[in-house]
Amino acid sequence: MYPKIVINKKKFRHNLKYLLDISHNRGISVMGVSKVFCADQNLIDILNEENIDYIADSRIVNLASILTDKPKVLLRLPSVSAAEEVIINSDISLNSELLTIKELNRFSKKHDLIHGIILMIDLGDLREGLFYDKDVFNIIKDILSLKNISLKGIGTNLTCYGGVIPTPEILTKLVEYKTRIETMFDISLGIISGGNSSSIELLLDDKIPFGINNLRLGESIVLGRETAYGSFIDNTYSDVFTLEAEIIELKDKPSIPIGQVGMNAFGKVPEFKDKGNILRAILSVGKQDVDHNEIIPFDNINILGSSSDHIIVDVSNSENLYEVGDIIKFRLTYASILSLMTSKYVSKHYE
Ligand SMILES: Cc1ncc(COP(=O)(O)O)c(C=O)c1O
């Protein structure tokens, strides 16, 4: 059935092994981030087989479904209201709020569990994490008094919101926090988690400061791309995931609508360029599955737009002589992999 997202397991394994080897050679453990592929067990199995250190996801539903003997990590800060589900379905969660951590402690006690936490420190990207020194030290004092919480380490997240690029200087601040916390509280922090795929460039250049011993990697594994500059990583595949969509109509028609143009199905007034008649193909995939701006044709095709259930493309200049029923293939971005994997209307095919 089309549309179909085609997942090349060999290429996925290759990217994973490549990044795992580099990380491990530099003394860095890896949390494999599964949210972009909705924790599909076929790919989780590969993470298991290649001995990933942790499996991390932002959604509790995904973590609950994952079959693994690796520690499960909740990436998104837990909601207070979901504290019980969090301690049941994950071993470790990233945290920055004492109220939430106390709830995790309460439910861990109820279930006779010890829940691990990584305290998030905001080094300037302005998403999650404690921002001021005094808040970091105060919360640690409180965390250490909670009997069913184990402080596994500290971490930071960069680039995702503020676009801040990790540098050795910024990551050194996290290492300095580690040293100060360990000295002040006479404890040892096991995990110092220095970010996501935006830290890959530093990793490849061997510039991750000594003391950072963990990264949480999603995009670099699935798309072979680092996220500080958006460069593709040498020796990795960018086409682990591709989209195949079927032509359901193919007709020669004008390039601009006939009649007075008002709002389209999404409340926007569309604009068109008159290129005379063109060969227009309608594909049976639409906005409900993917943003048409986030798919890249392999072929010389121009994507004209989309509605909920259709993407319309101009195939006039294609080297292929398409017919109704033919399949058009697309490369994908992180955003399109995310939405296509999430859509229940897109079938998954593994090769
Ligand atoms: C806290 C956190 N860490 C790591 C990641 C993985 O990021 P990336 O896909 O850039 O490796 C994400 C996002 O998925 C995240 O929210």
Give your account of this protein's structure:
The protein has helices spanning 9-25, 41-49, 60-65, 83-89, 98-110, 133-144, 168-185, 200-204, 219-223, 334-342; strands at residues 4-7, 29-33, 54-57, 72-74, 92-95, 115-120, 149-155, 191-193, 214-217, 241-254, 277-283, 295-297, 302-306, 311-314, 327-332, 347-350. Strand 5, helix 5 (98-110) and strand 6 (115-120) form a beta-alpha-beta unit. Helix 1 (9-25) runs parallel beside helix 2 (41-49). The chain is α/β, with parallel strands linked by helices and 351 residues long. The chain folds into two domains: 9-223, Alanine racemase (TIM Barrel, Alpha-Beta Barrel); 241-350, Lyase, Ornithine Decarboxylase, Chain A, domain 1 (Beta Barrel), CATH 2.40.37. It is elongated, with a radius of gyration of 23 Å. The chain is built from ten helices and 16 strands. Strands 1, 10, 11, 12, 13, 14, 15 and 16 form an eight-stranded mixed beta sheet that branches. An eight-stranded parallel beta sheet has the order 8-7-6-5-4-3-2-9. Bound molecules: pyridoxal-5'-phosphate. Residues 33, 35, 58, 75, 94, 157, 160, 196-197, 216-220, 227 line the site of pyridoxal-5'-phosphate (PLP). The site of pyridoxal-5'-phosphate has 15 residues, from strand 9 and helix 9.
Say what the CATH topology of the largest domain is.
TIM Barrel
State the secondary-structure class. Answer: alpha/beta
Cα shape: elongated
Q: Which H/E pattern describes the elements? A: EHEHEHEHEHEHEHEHEHEEEEEEHE
Number of helices in the DSSP assignment: 10
What share of the residues does DSSP label as strand, in percent? 15-25%
